[in-house]
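Chapter review: from sequence to fold.
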Amino acid sequence: MHATRIVALATAIIVSSTLPARMLAQGGGNGAKTPKAQAPTDFTGQWVSVVSEDWRYRMILPKKGDYGGVPVSSDGRRVANNWDPAKDEAAGEQCRSYGAAGVMRMPGSIRISWADDDTLKVETEAGSQTRLFYFKDPQTSGGDWQGRSQAKWETRNTRAASGGPNFGGGGGEVINTPPIALGGGLEVVTTNLKPGYLRKNGVPYSDKTVLTEYYDRVDEPNGESWLVVKAIVDDPDYLMQEFITSSHFKKQNDRAEWHPTPCSAR
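The token string follows.
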């Protein structure tokens, strides 16, 4: 898939309107079906990240003080300018950039499966992290790197792309595309996060951060399947406004290519 097509695909998902989110309690009329049974789209399987924007921030370690594209506040700049990976290592906090607000931007593969009928699980190669999305009451109070994630299904109208901002921040070209029919998606809101980094060079987010993510699957006529994850980071401490990104993943048919790596501060 050409990079411009990927950006346009993300724009179609980002800029177009959605129906109000509602649960799909269909079949039998009693609302007793589990979230797994209600799933409007199958997100399970193994997906590899396709870095189509922000390459220099995601594929290599940015220099200290380089927080281009992030609406960092004065306090956030102060923290970023004092980033010290050796200090993080000494404190046993090598995973600061692998928390929920940063890990999906890391290159590598992810695996999505059902932990049980009410909980979706996302495992990452990068940092060997595990995220749990709870459709019922989260079974954690958070306070760790992955926080407390509440999930719900969405249904959507067919969306049309009409151009718009490139939320990826990488300067990719945005082109018009025909309407893309989407059967449904996933909304995840994560709170109670341990403070971490949006990027590996110490661009911070605080424990007051609210991370809202929208997951969409798009199946192409050539048989390829793509996962698009729009993330909105809202942090009153270190950001002047919401930080919005769109990350792309391609479905992998071969699950043998799976190489989890530990967290690294550098």
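Two observations follow directly from the output. The two ends are 31 Å apart (CA to CA). Residues 3-252 form one domain.
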